[in-house]
């Protein structure tokens, strides 16, 4: 069990570095083009993609709370 936990923790520490590298690549491409509208569109898309799961989980917890309270 400790071996699985160890590898899981190592894996979780490696995920942000991979994600950050991809974001840097996207940023470099967007900055090199000089098109501000495209860069703003990509940034807005990232914000929406980040917000949707939080909203869905919040709605789910609200309904669970309401169900448990009643």
UniProtKB/TrEMBL annotation:
Superkingdom in the source lineage: Bacteria
Membrane-spanning ranges: 45-65
Signal sequence residues: 1-21
Keywords recorded for this protein, A-Z: Membrane, Signal, Transmembrane, Transmembrane helix
Name under which the protein is recorded: Uncharacterized protein
